[in-house]
Amino acid sequence: MDVIALRREFHRYPELGFREFRTAGRVVEILTSLGYAVQWGFEVMEESTRQDVPADAEIDAAYQEAAGAGVPAHVLEKMRRGLTGVVAVLRGKREGPVLAFRFDMDALPVEESRDADHLPAREEFRSQIAGRMHACAHDGHTAIGLALAHHLAGGDFAGTLKLIFQPAEEGVCGGALSLIEKGVADDVDRMFCLHLMANMQVGEVYASTRYLASAKMIAEFFGTPAHAGGAPQKGNNALLGAASALLAMHALPPYPGQETRVNVGTLTAGTAQNIIPAYALMSLETRAKSREVNDDLVRRVEQIMQGSAQMYGLRYAMRTTGEATTYEADPALVELVQEEAHLAGFKDIHACYDSSVSEDGPFFIRHVQQRGGQGSFISVGTGMEEAHHTTRFDICEEVLPLAVELLRRLAVRILR
Amino acid sequence: MDVIALRREFHRYPELGFREFRTAGRVVEILTSLGYAVQWGFEVMEESTRQDVPADAEIDAAYQEAAGAGVPAHVLEKMRRGLTGVVAVLRGKREGPVLAFRFDMDALPVEESRDADHLPAREEFRSQIAGRMHACAHDGHTAIGLALAHHLAGGDFAGTLKLIFQPAEEGVCGGALSLIEKGVADDVDRMFCLHLMANMQVGEVYASTRYLASAKMIAEFFGTPAHAGGAPQKGNNALLGAASALLAMHALPPYPGQETRVNVGTLTAGTAQNIIPAYALMSLETRAKSREVNDDLVRRVEQIMQGSAQMYGLRYAMRTTGEATTYEADPALVELVQEEAHLAGFKDIHACYDSSVSEDGPFFIRHVQQRGGQGSFISVGTGMEEAHHTTRFDICEEVLPLAVELLRRLAVRILR
Amino acid sequence: MDVIALRREFHRYPELGFREFRTAGRVVEILTSLGYAVQWGFEVMEESTRQDVPADAEIDAAYQEAAGAGVPAHVLEKMRRGLTGVVAVLRGKREGPVLAFRFDMDALPVEESRDADHLPAREEFRSQIAGRMHACAHDGHTAIGLALAHHLAGGDFAGTLKLIFQPAEEGVCGGALSLIEKGVADDVDRMFCLHLMANMQVGEVYASTRYLASAKMIAEFFGTPAHAGGAPQKGNNALLGAASALLAMHALPPYPGQETRVNVGTLTAGTAQNIIPAYALMSLETRAKSREVNDDLVRRVEQIMQGSAQMYGLRYAMRTTGEATTYEADPALVELVQEEAHLAGFKDIHACYDSSVSEDGPFFIRHVQQRGGQGSFISVGTGMEEAHHTTRFDICEEVLPLAVELLRRLAVRILR
Amino acid sequence: MDVIALRREFHRYPELGFREFRTAGRVVEILTSLGYAVQWGFEVMEESTRQDVPADAEIDAAYQEAAGAGVPAHVLEKMRRGLTGVVAVLRGKREGPVLAFRFDMDALPVEESRDADHLPAREEFRSQIAGRMHACAHDGHTAIGLALAHHLAGGDFAGTLKLIFQPAEEGVCGGALSLIEKGVADDVDRMFCLHLMANMQVGEVYASTRYLASAKMIAEFFGTPAHAGGAPQKGNNALLGAASALLAMHALPPYPGQETRVNVGTLTAGTAQNIIPAYALMSLETRAKSREVNDDLVRRVEQIMQGSAQMYGLRYAMRTTGEATTYEADPALVELVQEEAHLAGFKDIHACYDSSVSEDGPFFIRHVQQRGGQGSFISVGTGMEEAHHTTRFDICEEVLPLAVELLRRLAVRILR
Q1: Span C109-118, average pLDDT
Q2: B311 pLDDT band (50/70/90 cuts)?
Q3: pLDDT tier for residue C375 given thresholds of 50, 70 and 90
Q4: Which structural domain range is residue C304 located in?
Q5: With 90 as the cut, is the pLDDT of residue D385 above it?
Q6: What is the DSSP string of D361-401?
Q7: pTM for the structure as a whole
Q8: How many domains does one find in chain C?
Q9: Coil, helix or strand for B95?
Q10: Which residue of C169, C274, C282 to mutate against D (max D Cβ within 10 Å)?
Q11: By C-alpha distance, which of C147, C151, C214, C173 is closest to C84?
């Protein structure tokens, strides 16, 4: 099984969160053919735990797209309503612990570059879907997971191997939580997540990764419309409320050592040029190194919503649409990863990377740790300079077999 | 011809600007049957003069809707691409001046009330189209125009009667200008526009109306996206730029005696919670009593765009999507309207109403005046309290025959 | 008595509100010498009614300045604490009504121009006091009042003449109210105020003047200081609160036809670059044509203070430091002023001027009207272009005898 | 020499930056009596290098205060114009390196607490000067320096001891730079600075301290005044400019890992409620871990000034009034401090403290390092909870002899 060919296949057909029907269908197909016990869809995901779920029409469109691409009906049916997770289990020949790896599968609403020096363009595996792109390496993650499944397919180990293919990591809107809530990580003793990282060299690896806690929110202002020429004083201007609020949110003070962030990512307000805007909708996020500080930011964001509503005579509403947590890697695993990374051929090996983004993988690790297990989140360099989520993001593909080898060695070591 | 029945017919099928296919089709049908020389579509409108034209798909959808409702193909074809104006001419039996009346036909994107005490609901002529409504009395204007055509159909007068049915008055985005540019007002000697007004009693009339000059604009900021957690400092935040700009625009100082207004009516910005917004689009308007002051406001709005772009490292663009001008009514016509209003049965007659909204009718009057003619814009009370553009807007229908009689008397007086 | 010479004398020594010791001393001196019954200081002013009173040290400094300039101690003593009003009464030889004129005496904190074409500089009666200037013609008003007193000194009329010389009109902080509260206008039957106006020609006069209602306020935010480097998140930033609030105040919507105004005139906040500002003080004003709309603006300003405090975790306080009201002139007086203006030699005579500034003279007129009397506020053109309150403000002095003649004729007419 | 008694003496008479005449006078007196070669005033400071120097009147007042307190004229005279630095040199009996210690002497504009549980209040050495306080432990630093001088007074060592008593550390406005520019650190081989730290325990010490780079700035907007009622549209509002600018400055994005800070610490704007504010003055600061990022923040602050000026039709000006740099401690010195701290009796010894404030001590160390020497900045815990710069700041005085012993041991070790 050629991990690079697999990555290119997934790269061609990027799918957004809770709509990874085609990708998941292919994952089910391969894992089944390798002899794994595969469950997917409603068997492995709790529907109600998801947040920020796309509209039914969008899910249906993706579903039809996958059906049209040949994903069998019996595979698709279990995933109706966007339950696109897959879990494969292989019991070894001897007793032993349960070891799980998580791989995420979703892509991003980014238009991929057509530049001649962009490898997917030059080598003709560029995204076939306008406005969607694997700009965060999840195509690579999925391919690594399948290649790992291939290497370990014989089951010649002690204990149980569990491979979790997760939808909807982007936006941390419940892809991980809906799998956890269904119980797929309840029996796991050792848990690894992995991410390929731009701005680290090929051969560079961090045995653990700290992520920022984060909250994603929708915040709304409700005012009163009025004719902007005839009676502007009768309006309560929701857009002015949003402008004051978002400036204040971005002006929240930094918390020393906490890498705090606030971003109002979108705003939509108003109906027409000649009407005082009576409605404004913002989507925003906060981040911090600690959950407590992130909670404090959320509290201050709500305080700003209240105050800005008061200033302009508005009502407001706020709700959470996603969240990410923090965890601390187990030192024993960190040491083990470093040792095996050396043997796998990595040259530049570190204990911990402090990321300034957020992930929902830590929910898996925290869950396993709370039940007595251990976990770590590994970061693997891909030797490229273009940032994640940009139109020219790419990976040096030579990292793919290297990452597979590291995970394979970890599995053999732990399941021995 | 029952002006009230006609009004109710139009009320049932409201159509938005540059999409009044069904309404215009019915206007063509009636005027033709009355013996008027009728031209419409590309015959009477200059396509390029329009601003803020709907997308082709929206125009096509309305076109198909009208075709489905039975508007004949030979009528519709001339209106393709949204050229929905109609001009009817009737030459009298003797020589005389050219007298023109303008009526507007477009509706608004407002959902009509279902309240039992809302006449159109009770009498079952409520809008049949979800989310669209004749909430500015243009249904009444169109009905008045057709009833007037009926009364004068014999042509027993001196000179020429010209009835102009205009699309797209709302948003002052070129409905009037595209007709004027095509020359339909070039030969006019006397020009009247008319508007039915809430908050004036039935029997109340103003022989002239002053409107505010206005400009409608689209303003855009272009920044740089960046990951809001990983590299926020690499972004150039278009939404912050828009927030600063719109607060500054609303804070522009009042000009004494000028009834200045600025409204940022809509804002759309950003793509996702975790991305620094790289794009923001605002639609906005300015108003003032004089064109010069309105031009000054537009200049200051652009200065704010420039400055806010500079603050946040953005580029900006601005374009005008609509405009309204001012005019001064000719005293001779004002006096004449007052006299005939008295005879027509109006009880509360005034010389001039200072409106705080904008209209594109003044473009017609200004054009006629610049060529040596005269004009005035008449405001007629409808005895209702609900404001224009609201979900419960309505008119006392008894005003309809009263308005028809006023216009009929004016025609007979001028064309004698 | 040369009204021009008197004006130049007052022009040389401008004094700010509640500190007009030297001016008032001279007024007392002249009026006493003319045989009027003169009262001043605590005899004519209620101390507690004043707002925004200068600090004791500033009042004392002005007091000492006046003492040094030779104002007699017995005159000054009654004015201690800044009670610088003067009221002169002359009973006529016959029974008749009480007629009052109000003249204001205070100057402004403006540095007077030294330009060669600025008359006071060329003719060497420029302000002798750095940073203070009669830039609003009150020097002219005071001179007119004294010249009028001179002309009528014989008392050859029916009824009573009352001349009120008022301090502290600028800032409308209680100069008028403290005289009214003491009762000086209680017996008045006819009341006139007068203002010399730039931007009107010599010979131009308005028999009445409408002013805007206004409120002057102090608004404070109280936050929490914190080290801006070490613990910025522990601060509650009063300056951010003030910035959001003042932008929102300036963005309050215009009220159609009301000439609404909001101005945050000053802001002082913070203690040092490295401390989160814990205090902010704003002084601001609102204006509108009607008292009700002005009250509504004040309510909205307070709503903004509340909301902005809530946004940033601050406390706030607000208090009024000045106010101006509106009045409607009595038509009988307006007609009478127009007639006498014609006889006095004015060429361009109007009924009413709509001013866009505020005055506390209307408090006198409203008070007299509420007790059954009549009043009007006269505006007299001075034929200059430089705006009031600017460094090059001046008047054409030929207007001075013209204004005296108008007031003299009014007195003779009313007191006959 | 009792270091605690000395500290209490300095605590009673706090003096602000470039006005430490009495403190410096006492330092000169003691050091001279101990046999050091002492230079001060213009002998050790370059006048032109200072920034944000107080007004002459303030310097003179402090000068007179010191003269009144008995500081001899010959001592004071060299310090005229606020050159209040003192440098003492003692040559040892043998050849050896030059070792320098820096101590800062200035106090803060804070009113000291009178709480009974505040030691200086209870023990009656509270600040004798209203509104000034040693709220940052510089009284302790100065006392430590003098006690150290006492211990080493015999000169029984190899090399040269140089004790630098620096004015004006607060605000990093050139206290250090003016000494360096004069050359006092040119011959130094080993350089230590020291700060007593709240929120660290007595017995806790950090052998080196990283500070944030910082810039302190004054930023001004120049607009056009106008009457806020009569002609607000003629004004160019500097206060609106400042409000928009400061919100944008506080909304500058965080730089990952850089502990970036922006604070607009003060704002003063406008002249009166009824005048459009024509001038605004802000003092502000930026901070970051690296000089490059701090420079980038300064660039963005200026970009915001430019843009906000453009928005409101203003001019702007910016100038730097202070700056702090970064340095990296020499590992050899860090190790040496740790060893001697252990011997001196410290219990909790660390290599490096990451401070989130700024200091100008790093200028000394960077200067010495650039000439081939070594340096470090030591942080010593004082076991108190009240934050620096607050009204109840204090130190556990038992730390004073402990700190003296550490420095003494370092001197003996290095100068052996």
Answers
A1: 93
A2: very high
A3: very high
A4: 213-323
A5: no
A6: HHHHHHHHHHTT-EEEEEEEE----SPTTSTT----TTHHH
A7: 0.84
A8: 2
A9: strand
A10: C274
A11: C173
Q: What is the CATH number of the domain that holds B247?
A: 3.30.70.360
Residues of chain A positioned with their CB less than 8 A from the CB of B228:
261, 263, 265, 285, 287
Token pair recorded at residue B328:
């001064």
pLDDT grade for C219, boundaries at 50, 70 and 90: very high
Say yes or no: A260 contacts chain D, CB-CB below 8 A.
yes
Report pLDDT for C52.
Answer: 86
pLDDT of residue B220: 97
Nearest to D49 by CA among D169, D215, D214, D177: D177
The answer, yes or no, to whether residue B144 has pLDDT greater than 90, is yes
Q: What is the DSSP string of C112-155?
A: PP--TTSHHHHTT---SSTT-B--SSHHHHHHHHHHHHHHTTT-
Q: Which CATH number characterizes residue A88's domain?
A: 3.40.630.10
Residue whose pair of structure tokens reads 């469950």 in the numeric block:
A39
pLDDT in tens, A272-284: 898 999 999 999 9
Q: Are the C-beta atoms of residues B107 and B169 closer than 8 Å to each other?
A: no
C neighbours by CB contacts (3+ pairs under 8 Å): A, B, D
Contacts of A1 (CB under 8 A, 6+ apart): A30, A146, A147, A150
A306 and A342 both lie in a single domain: no
Per-residue pLDDT, B199? 86
For the residues of D13-71, what is the DSSP string, one character each? S---TT--HHHHHHHHHHHHHTT-EEEEGGGT--GGG--SPPPHHHHHHHHHHHHHTT-
Mean pLDDT score across all residues of chain D: 96
Residue D141 and residue D31 share a domain = yes
Q: Where are the alpha helices (DSSP H) in C152-290?
A: 175-182, 238-250
- Do D130 and D24 lie in a common domain? yes
Task: Decide if B288 contacts B258 (C-beta within 8 A).
Answer: yes
| C269 Cβ contact list (under 8 Å, min separation 6) | C221, C238, C239, C242, C277, C279, C280, C281, D266, D267, D268
Domain boundary among B291, B323, B355: B323
B251/C256 CB distance under 8 A: no
Is some CB atom of chain C closer than 8 A to the CB atom of D239? yes
Q: Tens digit of pLDDT for each residue in B269-309?
A: 999 898 999 999 999 999 999 999 999 999 999 999 999 99
Instruction: State whether residue A210 sits within 8 Å of chain B by CB.
Output: no
What are residue C39's DSSP bridge partners?
A: C87
Sign of CA dihedral B174, B176, B179, B180: negative
Q: Clarify whether residues A334 and A311 are in a common domain.
A: no
* Amino acid making up residue A263: N
| D298 in contact with chain B, both atoms CB, cutoff 8 A | no
Q: Measure the CA angle with vertex C412, ends C406 and C415; round to 5°.
A: 130
Residues belonging to chain B: 416
Contacts of C348 (CB under 8 A, 6+ apart): C201, C203, C204, C205, C381
Question: What does the mean pLDDT of chain A come to?
Answer: 96
Closest CA to D165 of D278, D88, D234: D88
Rounded to two decimals, the ipTM of the complex is 0.81
Please compute the mean of the pLDDT values over residues D301-309 and round it to a whole number: 98
